[in-house]
Amino acid sequence: EQDDLALLESGEEEVEAPAPAGLPVLAVVGRPNVGKSTLVNRILGRREAVVQDVPGVTRDRVTYPAEWAGRNFTLVDTGGWEVDVAGIDARVAEQAEVAVRMADAVLFVVDATVGPTDTDERVVKLLRRSGKPVVLAANKVDSPMQESDAATLWALGLGEPYAVSALHGRGSGEVLDAAMKVLPEVSQVADAMPRGGPRRVALVGRPNVGKSSLLNSLAGAERVVVHETAGTTRDPVDELIELGGTPWWFVDTAGIRRRVHQTSGADFYASLRTQAALEKAEVAVVLVDASAPMTEQDTRVIQQVIDAGRALVVAYNKWDLMDEDRRPFLEREIEMDLVQIQWAPRVNLSAKTGWHTNRLVRALETSLASWDTRIPTGKLNAFLGELTAAHPHPVRGGKQSRILFATQVSNRPPRFVLFATGFIEAGYRRFVENRLRESFGFTGTPIEISVRVRE
Ligand code: GDP
Ligand code: GDP
């Protein structure tokens, strides 16, 4: 116990965050079919069978935790995005732009057997403009005889083309080593999120739920603030909108205003855009269409917000389409749909008529306050002491794990570490989470609980 107390008193700095934010981000970009997915699978150590040869398959993830040569980083995979051949050029550039914005470095994949194309040139321009470090992978160099194919890619002006065969693994170590050299230790992108100044909101949701309508309604109803607010660097894709007397940044609004047409890749693009917006936001408003049943895509967006560790508000839009008779049933339906996120504030509104849109501010403020919350260690342990005395961890195999103490290692979102004498079951961890929420609120923020076992 002596030991535990010493650790407890040594303060929060001694404890490493369980899921450190700020891992550097590497984005893999390039035209369709150059082998991005194959390369990503190789980096992640997935079996080749995972590569989808079926066009238009929707991936539900965009970012993956990855490791190379002992370095942890986040990999942005744009490989699942299949597009129709028409307009391919603009789409590839658009996709690359979103991916590059959220990345610290870029792995640009080109098909060496084809050589540089106009689309490749266009992406190169964009990469240059971004100022981010780029490593060029000349893919499909399956044998030494094809090395000369790779050499033609010097013409792109991105420096040395690394000859790779994503399919066979040839050269993939070298290109990754090169990527690790240019990847910073800590993400500059995540750190670029300004502290202080107006708070940053992302409007997210599947296509057609009413994001652009809501944005227009909010921007129109209230005075749009034009002056530069001190201490903020303005990204042209963000808009400053005054709500309830306070300015708010609505991030990545360009992606909302520039509507993406329905193509086979639109789902994936939407999910990539959501991810990019979440990186920059502190709180997300997930729009759901109240006039239609909830879909898997809605659930996926909500999960993306939780995984990104952002504060959450759920907005049921198109309430004006609601039939009075349906209302009682709908309430119950919504409760069931949202059972996993009962902790999130919900606003019913209509972007079209403006009804209840003014209620968003209160919900945003509530969620952000929870997201910012820090519970003093003493208070947290007093709570846990009472809780574990009344409801001890179940005995398993004659042993009983005990939680010795806990500390909140960070906020935004709140993260906790429980120090225990043995394994803590997932069910018990959920129980602790629920009780934490009952006692301390946390309305509208995901919270993370991890366990350290002390022998
Ligand atoms: P993406 O659209 O850029 O993600 O490309 P994929 O990874 O789906 O690959 C497109 C096609 O190229 C698939 O049929 C892959 O098997 C093939 N491919 C990928 N890498 C290589 C490679 O290094 N050599 C050869 N010969 N084929 C490859
Ligand atoms: P986004 O793809 O999420 O940006 O969705 P949009 O804002 O473009 O809206 C998709 C469609 O839903 C458009 O036809 C809108 O006019 C309509 N819409 C959006 N909000 C509402 C609403 O509150 N009520 C009704 N009746 N229609 C809406």
Automatic annotation (TrEMBL):
Top-level taxonomic group: Bacteria
Residues the entry annotates as binding GTP 1: 30-37, 77-81, 139-142
CDD domains per the UniProt record, alphabetical: EngA1, EngA2
Cleaved signal peptide residues: none
Residue span(s) of domain EngA-type G: 24-187, 199-372
Record: residues binding GTP 2: 205-212, 252-256, 317-320
GO terms assigned for molecular function: GTP binding; ribosome binding
Keyword Aminoacyl-tRNA synthetase listed: no
Keywords: GTP-binding, Nucleotide-binding, Repeat, Ribosome biogenesis
Keyword Repeat on entry: yes
Matching HAMAP family: GTPase_Der
Subunit structure: Associates with the 50S ribosomal subunit.
Function of the molecule: GTPase that plays an essential role in the late steps of ribosome biogenesis.
Family: Belongs to the TRAFAC class TrmE-Era-EngA-EngB-Septin-like GTPase superfamily. EngA (Der) GTPase family.
This protein's name: GTPase Der
